[in-house]
Specification:
Elements lengths: L3 E7 L10 E4 L13 E6 L4 E12 L12 E2 L8 H14 L3 H8 L6 E9 L5 H6 L5 H12 L3 E3 H8 L5 H9 L3 E9 L5 E7 L3 H9 L6 H13 L1 E3 H8 L3 H9 L3 E7 L19 H14 L5 E7 L5 H14 L3 E5 L5 H13 L3 E4 L5 H13 L4 E4 L11 E7 L16 H12 L2 E6 L4 H8 L4 E5 L16 H6 L8 H12 L20
Parallel strand pairs: 12-17, 12-18, 13-15, 13-16, 14-15, 16-17
Antiparallel strand pairs: 1-2, 1-4, 3-4, 3-5, 6-7, 6-8, 9-10, 9-11
Length: 526
């Protein structure tokens, strides 16, 4: 039987030595190990455990040097598909980081693993042999005492804490070299799947009622639970106990009698959306309709395309987005909407939930780790073909992606300040090329590079020049501060601004002053 070799991107590899490392696939993993799954591997001279991502698997050549073997598979199924792996490799070259840095950025924090080094007594080693290895060393005896008291193994952190100021490493080295103990690495995931117990009727309803009717007076709770379950067929064990007053022990006794079975069912942690009434498709005005038809024509080409939707504030860009997403879903494809700030997500989520209901998932860093992980799962399974979120949502695991929308595309918050230092717009472009999708960049004040590309015809340009329902734009006054200087006003507040503020105060109204920080130079000198 031919053996297999996996190419693995190792988490412990720094950028200078970051490359795919070859590992032998153990026989017990050959059937189920696939690219995109994370594994536990020994790495470097000390063979310390490290997590890594399988990039590819191939048949082993008939001759070759001895390779280290994969220790364990950390996932039951791939967390990244082929396109996700390609994206991670592209990001590695573009943003000068390791492949695993990219993988961590692409996955929700709930999927991260924490690795713990442990010292464990080897199987078959008895106390007599172990303590013989400790002769003449009080530190080794102390370490053995600790390990036996902890059931044969202990975390490095526990051992260091117990040793205090003394270094436990010489004692650990002596035990491992003598074959008494071994260094192991254990992995624990940050967030696990949330489950609840589900009670399911195991026999026909008539038979179940007949089995509990005879002892109705002696065991009223058993009768009440069975009666309710016969009406429902299946129900949460927690709800059955709440509505009948029964205890978990009552359900266990019914399970032993063969009346019901207790099964585990997955529960998704979701942000509650209450009071959102379904909305009709938006009615577009003439200008919006022309922009929508142009963008939709680009989306129907079946090849990658990009366009700038350049619309003044309040021109109804969101209405156009909704129509585009409706058409995308009608073609059996998925859509991704990115917003620059977390504060914009809840209001946009309510608008989109009114139009698309439970088809919407939301991904942003303010969600609890469990909620974010469950929303990610819904997107990956295809239960939520529309994803709304901030910068990191650009990695949402949407299959057959047809549309990506970057609202307020000029915002600097789309640029990550952490490794990998990616820009969501660049990643969105790459994903659109991968999937033959349309990228829509929406803004009232586009970035210089986007406007240049639109003017040069490199990407499409669609304009919305008037506000929705013909509402007037606010009046803007431009004040020349050089003229103010000539008139003897050297302060930061111009005479026009002072006059307008005084009128405001007389009317007992409020005023907001914004300081422009969009410029590259942030220094004011006297």
């Amino acid at each position: 039987m031919s053996k297999k070799i996996a190419k693995v991107a190792v988490a412990r590899a720094v950028y200078a030595i970051d490359k795919p490392y070859d590992y032998m696939v153990p026989q017990e993993l050959e059937e189920r190990l696939r690219p995109g799954m994370r594994v536990l591997v020994p790495f470097a001279a000390g063979n310390r455990g490290s997590d890594g991502l399988v990039l590819s698997i191939r048949e082993a050549p008939s001759v070759g040097g001895a390779l280290k073997s994969i220790q364990a598979a950390l996932d039951s199924e791939p967390v990244l598909d082929e396109k996700g792996i390609q994206l991670a490799l592209w990001m590695r070259e573009r943003y000068f980081c390791t492949v695993y840095d990219c993988v961590k950025a692409m996955l929700p924090a709930g999927l991260y693993f924490s690795l713990r080094d442990q010292v464990a007594i080897r199987p078959g080693v008895d106390r007599e042999r172990a303590y013989r290895a400790a002769e003449g060393s009080a530190a080794v005896r102390q370490l053995l005492d600790l390990l036996w008291s902890w059931g044969g193994k202990g975390d490095m952190e526990q051992i260091r804490l117990a040793f205090g100021a003394r270094d436990p490493n010489p004692a650990i080295r002596r035990l491992t070299e003598s074959g008494v103990a071994a260094l192991e690495t254990g992995a624990q995931r940050a967030v696990s799947d949330k489950t609840e117990k589900l009670a399911v009727l195991a026999v026909p309803a008539e038979d179940a009622m007949a089995m509990v009717r005879q002892r109705r007076k002696a065991a009223p709770l058993r009768y009440a639970v069975t009666e309710l379950l016969c009406a429902l067929g299946a129900a949460s064990a927690k709800d059955l106990c709440y509505f009948t007053g029964a205890s978990p022990a009552t359900l266990k006794s019914l399970e032993k009698s063969g009346i019901l079975t207790l099964e585990k069912q997955e529960v998704l942690r979701r942000t509650p959306l209450e009071g959102v009434a379904p909305a009709e498709p938006p009615v577009l005005n003439e200008e919006q309709q022309a922009a929508f038809e142009g963008l939709d024509a680009l989306a129907r080409q079946g090849r990658p395309a990009a366009a700038l939707l350049y619309g003044v504030t309040g021109s109804g860009k969101t209405q156009g987005y909704i129509r585009l997403i409706r058409e995308t879903l009608a073609r059996g494809r998925t859509a991704l909407v990115l917003v620059p700030e977390i504060v914009l997500t809840p209001q946009l989520l309510r608008i989109f939930a009114a139009h698309f209901g439970k088809q919407v998932a939301v991904l942003h860093s303010s969600l609890r780790a469990g909620e974010r992980y469950d929303e990610w799962k819904r997107a990956r399974r295809g239960e939520a073909p529309v994803v709304i979120g901030t910068r990191s949502a650009v990695f949402a695991p949407l299959d057959n992606l047809g549309l990506i929308i970057l609202d307020e595309e000029q915002e600097s918050s789309y640029k990550s300040e952490n490794v990998p230092r990616y820009h969501a717009r660049d990643v969105a472009k790459y994903r659109c090329v991968q999937n033959g999708a349309l990228l829509v960049l929406g803004s009232a004040t586009p970035s210089v590079e986007t406007m240049y590309q639109a003017k040069e015809g490199q990407i499409g340009l669609f304009q919305l020049k008037t506000r929705y329902n013909q509402r007037a734009l606010p009046q803007v006054l431009v004040v020349d501060l050089k003229e103010e200087l000539r008139q003897g006003n050297a302060g930061a507040v111009s005479s026009v601004l002072r006059e307008e503020l005084e009128k405001n105060f007389q009317r007992e109204e409020q005023a907001i002053l914004f300081l422009n920080r969009r410029g590259a130079s942030r220094m004011v000198s006297c």
